[in-house]
Write a structure and sequence with these properties.
Strand order of the largest sheet: 2-8-7-6-5-3-4
CATH architecture of the largest domain: 3-Layer(aba) Sandwich
Number of strands: 13
Distance between the termini: 47 Å
CATH topology of the largest domain: Aspartate Aminotransferase, domain 2
Low-confidence stretches: none
Strand content: 5-15%
Shape: globular
Order of helices and strands: HHEHHEHEHEHEHEEEHHHEEHEEEH
Number of domains: 2
CATH superfamily of the largest domain: Type I PLP-dependent aspartate aminotransferase-like (Major domain)
Number of helices: 13
Bound molecules: pyridoxal-5'-phosphate
Structural class: alpha/beta
Helix content: 40-55%
Radius of gyration: 21 Å
Length: 384
């Protein structure tokens, strides 16, 4: 009775573990939560105040489906100012979270049977979204020795006559690695040569460490015509529950894609949109957030990098640390399961990111919790 494409979807492993962790915490268990996919900081007051004002002023009805003009203009100026992407507000769509921006982007570009290349390890929702719209998911192998980044020769070999889109996500969930301008330019050459499109998920752009600079794919020469940029407010402004993201790209795609919003969600939440204008006007909050996360990254790295049976990769961005647990002799699923049961530390086994032998630890939690978590992981490893 149920549609086959829907039946074939996997439940989100990350959401499942997050829900289990939260329910253990509600039961009063002393869990160290390294599974979280969202910043633990509260949404800043200056953003909340704008939403409250909007609600009090009755800004509680449908908005234009592509988003309120003030926000679309603020996004277009942000893209120019910070990302060097020259765009008009008419080429921006405000969406119900970055997740929905990705879905709209894929639906707009991919015909049933078209192949979509996604570097592996990948964020759990890409394959499922591609399946849902009838596309062919094509994971692209990457290697730890190359920081899990795209190898141009491997990419070239994977492209067929049916390849339409490459999905990029950097800084990457789950590996935390990001790309340099030079590396992106190499990918851009292939995109041009094989007449492809890129969906560039840059949701973690503001969480980037050690003085690195985020380079937007659409800012590279000729790539503005071939790139749909996805971003949002969830990670940079701690606004996961506000469900607000956006999509920007060439007018011929965006003008068609906006019809999907017309007939599905109608628009993003009105007062979230109003509040997001204030988020983009603020210069310092996200920068401070990045510094706090970098400190936590350092703390977790110091704690783990000296241990024998776990090999963390130092995150260049995001709030995740990707760790090789093969020296334990356990599968990542066994590792995560036993760590939770024995030490009450939750983490995400990376099977659902398409790779065996790794776990993802989130440092979206306080310094005290990070120290406690490291001590427990040390005990756990000593017991193996
Ligand atoms: C790589 C990546 N893209 C997109 C999203 C979705 O973000 P949003 O909450 O804005 O839908 C997430 C959330 O975890 C993510 O990790």
């Amino acid at each position: 009775m149920v549609n086959n494409r829907v039946k074939s979807l996997n439940k989100s492993a990350t959401l499942k573990i997050t829900a289990l962790t939260k329910s253990l915490i509600r039961e009063g268990k002393d869990v160290v939560n390294f599974a979280a996919g969202e910043p633990d900081f509260d949404t800043p007051d200056f953003i909340k105040a704008e939403a409250i004002k909007a609600i009090e002023q009755g800004f509680t009805k449908y908005t234009p489906s592509a988003g309120i003009p003030a926000l679309k203009e603020a996004i277009a100026s942000k893209l120019l100012r910070e990302n060097n992407i020259k765009t008009e507000s008419s080429n921006v769509l405000v969406t119900t979270g970055a997740k929905y921006a990705l879905y709209v982007a894929l639906l707009s570009l991919v015909e049933p049977g078209d192949e979509v290349i996604v570097p592996m390890p990948y964020w759990v929702s890409y394959p499922e979204m591609i399946t849902l719209i009838g596309g062919e998911f094509r994971p692209l192998l990457t290697k730890k020795e190359k920081d899990f980044k795209i190898d141009i020769n491997v990419l070239k070999k994977q492209i067929t006559a049916k390849t339409k889109v490459i999905v990029l996500n950097y800084p990457s969930n789950p590996t935390g690695v990001t790309y340099t301008r030079q590396e992106l330019s190499e990918i851009a050459k292939i995109v041009e040569q094989f007449n492809l499109y890129v969906i560039s998920d840059e949701i973690y752009e503001k969480l980037i460490y050690d003085g690195r600079k985020h380079i937007s794919f659409a800012s590279l020469s000729g790539m503005d015509k071939r790139t749909l940029t996805v971003n949002g407010f969830s990670k940079a402004y701690s606004m996961t529950g506000w469900r607000l993201g956006y999509l920007a790209g060439p007018n011929e795609i965006i003008s068609q894609a906006s019809k999907i919003i017309d007939h599905t969600t109608s628009c993003a939440v009105s007062f979230s949109q109003q509040a997001a204008v204030a988020a983009l006007e603020n210069k310092t909050w996200a920068e401070d957030l990045c510094l706090k996360f970098q400190e936590r990254r350092d703390l977790l790295w110091q704690g783990l990098s000296t241990l024998d049976k776990i090999k963390p990769i130092k995150s260049q961005g995001t709030f995740y640390m990707f760790c090789d647990v093969t020296p334990t002799g356990l599968s990542a699923l066994e590792f995560a399961d036993q760590l939770l049961k024995q030490q009450m530390v939750s983490c995400i086994p990376a099977e659902s990111f398409g790779i065996e032998g790794y776990i993802r630890l989130s440092f979206a939690t306080g310094n005290g919790q990070i120290k406690k978590g490291v001590a427990r992981i040390t005990d756990f490893l000593n017991g193996i």
